[in-house]
C-alpha cells in the first residue's frame, strides 16, 4: 500500500490557445518536458516524492472522434510504472485540440469521455485521476475574462463553458469507473474568496462568493443556491442539463483538491470590478469553507510562489502553506496530501498565459536547467521529516492507493473486484444520454 500521506508535485501541462486560437501556450513544450521527461522523472524521485500530477497533452493525443495518438503517453507512463511513481492523471488542462475549437462546443463532453475511457483501458494500472483541471478557472479565463480559447466575456459564455467542462468531468469519471472501479478522483479546483472593499461592494462580493462554488456544486450533484439557479437558467443552462448534474453524483469516489495561490483572494469594488487582494484569510480558512459545504476529504493540490530577489520567498511560502495544512488537519478535516506545483519553473504565467513572451517564472522546485532551487531543498526536507509522522499522528484518511508495482497483486485485484460489486449493487448508472 502507498504511504499514508500524499506528498506530490506536478509537471505543468497547461495548453490553452490565445490570439484567436492561432497560438498554443503549451507549457510542456515551453518548459522542455518533451525533451527532458526522463530527467524530470529522475528529479521527482530524488526529492523523495512518490506522487506526480501528470497527464498526456490532450491537444496532440486526441486526434479526432475516437482517434488517439498514445505514442508519448506510452513512453512516459511506462517509465512512471517502472519507477513505481503514482500518477494523478490530469487529462484536460485548460485547452482542447484545434479541431474541437473551444469550450463552447457541446460535443466536447462526450468526446472527452471516450478519450478518458480509452486512456483507462490502455493504462489499467492507473488509479488516480484529475479528469478536468480547475473547471472554474478555465471557464472564467476562457469565457468571462476573454483571455484564452474562445476569448469571450459574458455570463452566457461562462455558463456554457462551465456546463461543458463539468459535464466532461462527470462523464469522464463515469467512463473511467467502468474500466477501473476503484478509481479515485482528486478534483484540482481553485479555492477562491472575494472581499468587499466597502459596504457598497457587499452585494457584488456576495454574488462572486456564491458563483465560486458552481463548478463543484454541479460536479458533486449539490443543489445550487436559489440565486445561482436563476443565474444558470437566465444564462442558458437548460433544466435537463441541470438535472443531469443532480442525477450523476459520484462524490463518494472523490477527494476535493483545493488549490491556493497568492492570487486566489480578491478585492471587490462597488461596480463589481476586482483586483487581487493578496493573502487575507489564507488556505486553511478558505478550505474549511469548502469542506463545510461538501464534507469530502481534501488535498492541497497546487501552490507556488516566485523565488524573488531575496532568494527565500518561495521557501517562506512553502512553510506557510504547510502550516496551513497542519492547521486544517488540527481542525479535524481529513486532509490527505500536499502539492508544490510544479516540478520545474514555468513560462509566461506572469501574464496568466495571455502573452507569448517566453518569460521564465521561477516557480519550480528546479529551474529549467534542472538545477534544484532552495524551495526544492526545503520541500525534500519537509517530506523526509513529516512522512513517517503524519500517518499515525494526523487526522487524515488512509487512502486505498495501489502502487503501480502492486497493480497485479491478488489483494489489488480483490480491491477492484469489491469496488465493482459495490458500484453495481447501487442504482445503475444512467447512460451517456441526458
Largest sheet: spatial strand order? 1-4-7-8-9-11-14-15
Tally of structural domains: 1
Might you state the CATH topology name? TIM Barrel
* Relative strand content: 15-25%
Low-confidence stretches: 392-396, 427-434
Named CATH architecture: Alpha-Beta Barrel
Termini separation comes to: 38 Å
Mean pLDDT: 94
The total of helices stands at 16
Shape descriptor: globular
Instruction: Provide the gyration radius in Å.
Output: 20 Å
Judged by helices, strands and strand pairing, the structural class is alpha/beta
Please render the helix and strand layout as text.
Layout: E1 6-10, E2 17-18, E3 23-24, H1 27-30, H2 33-46, E4 51-54, H3 58-61, E5 62-64, E6 67-68, H4 71-83, E7 86-92, H5 108-122, E8 128-132, H6 135-143, H7 155-179, E9 184-190, E10 193-196, H8 202-211, H9 214-219, H10 226-234, H11 239-246, E11 254-259, E12 265-268, E13 274-276, H12 283-294, E14 298-302, H13 313-330, E15 335-340, E16 346-347, E17 360-361, H14 374-386, H15 390-393, H16 410-425
Parallel strand pairs: 1-4, 1-15, 4-7, 7-8, 8-9, 9-11, 10-12, 11-14, 14-15
Antiparallel strand pairs: 2-3, 5-6, 12-13, 16-17
Helix pairs in contact: 2-4, 5-7, 6-7, 12-13
Keywords: Hydrolase
GO molecular function: hydrolase activity, hydrolyzing O-glycosyl compounds
Protein name: Glycosyl hydrolase family protein
Q: In brief, what are we looking at here?
A:
With 434 residues, the protein is α/β, with parallel strands linked by helices. The protein has 16 helices and 17 strands. One of its GO terms (molecular function) is hydrolase activity, hydrolyzing O-glycosyl compounds.
